[in-house]
Amino acid sequence: MQLEKLATIGLAVIIVVAISGYILADENIRDDIFDNLFGEVKKDDKITPVTGAITYGDSADVNYIGKFLNGTVFDTNLEEVAKQWGFYNESLPYEPAMVFVDPNYEFYPPEGYENYSSSFIPGFLEGLVGMEEGDMENVTILPVDGYGEWNESMSEMFGMGSYPLESVIESEISENKTALISSFPGIDLTEGSTFDYGAVAFEQAGVLNASILEVTDDNVTYKLTPENGSSVDLPLFNWTIVFIVENDTHFTMRSLIEDGHIFSIESFYGSMHFKVISVNETHARLAMNLDAPEVRFIGATLEFELEVVKVYKTSALLES
Q1: Do residues 297 and 147 touch, judged by C-beta distance below 8 A?
Q2: Which terminal CB of the chain, N or C, has fewer other CB atoms within 10 Å?
Q3: Distance, CA of 316 to CA of 115 (rounded, Å)
Q4: Over the stretch 12-29, which tens digit does the pLDDT of each residue have?
């Protein structure tokens, strides 16, 4: 009986070893067994779990529809919805967004998931937390977790918190000759000649002329000659300034700004939005927003329809 038992055990070991060798040699069978037993997938020599709810550090393929509270759709990655709302762009792929769920920007996507991004508003990312593959949810996002409000302290950081309504300008200006020629190609540097200074300074012709007073080897001295009471629209700020000429050596530029006026500037930081929140005799107080792609998103509560197409538990890779 003992010999029979040993023989049976030996045969079982041989069968197990043979089957194991076959399984380990076949990648598809191996991955199927890993999937069924452990809920994991082999990806780029890494075992990445794909079961369970989304948490921080996970990655997911997501379909979404973004709306304002009045029901207007402003963004989606679903082609039919984009066409329905009139902002379809044939250059876009219209496929699930590759989202790296990291609203606090604490991690980098792990190797193999570099194309997954956390460049979504915090409320979008937070809304995915707890969802599982196949889930669909409606998420309401307040401005604090969306594109923010008007921020006066931020404007002060950029030196735009308190904007003076009047600026005193010296009429005579001495400038490097090379720099002047670069700004005004074809300029006549003969003493007594005039050129259109406003065409460059304000991007508008005929609003401010200048006269050449003196030309040396290195510099050019010229005099700005605005007409008293004339005005020009500032293209950058989208408001009007008036020239006030009281003497021959200086003149004043007065900005005509109304409370509530909004303007935007494209810069290194992206879209910079400003709003005049108050005006007194000498200054205008400005608030600012750097987060919104357009002014209409500032202070807006948003709604997103989210559908999780696929979950990748990359948080496990971050922990390891």
Answers
A1: yes
A2: N
A3: 18
A4: 333 333 434 443 444 554
